[in-house]
Amino acid sequence: MSTLQLDRHGWLRPSAGVALAPSPNHDERPPGQDATLLVMHNISLPPGRFGGTEVIDLFLNRLDYDSHPWLPRLRGLRVSAHFLVRRDGRIVQFVATDLRAWHTGVSSFQGRERCNDFSIGIEMEGTDTLPYTHEQYGAARRLTAALRARHPLNAVRGHEHIAPGRKTDPGPAFDWARYGREGGWLRRQLPPVP
User: Is the pTM higher than 0.90?
Assistant: First the structure.
């Protein structure tokens, strides 16, 4: 697999397995703020279904809410993440990393509120309990290397760690030890061992 690189605005350079789908759901980071936190999520729409266009459509505000009985509860939601890593390892980018994606909601990390201000969000296509794929871990490793080369990321957490009680992702199925080892993170940069 080729090495991933971000351009000067924080978009991945076109390469095999990378698609750009700019989302309107973003805004500017606060002045002088760069991303220091990486947040891992999971998503599947409808829950437990993979490979469709629903996640992309949600982030692009074009989701057909009537296509499945579960989807109407998302009506009016305006959210995004910087990246989606599909089950086969393909990556979709929605927001430039220099901009603020809307992925954390009410959140806190090390006493700082509003984690969207200083984080980058990666959505892994999956659920809390279904193992993630080898291809996803490989894509996450490559993406993490590109992000760490461009931004001063010094910690990674799951959505569950920055919004406890409200969020549960990426869940117990996410192999933090594997991701940490492959991503070159120090133990202190990863979530505490339960």
Answer: yes
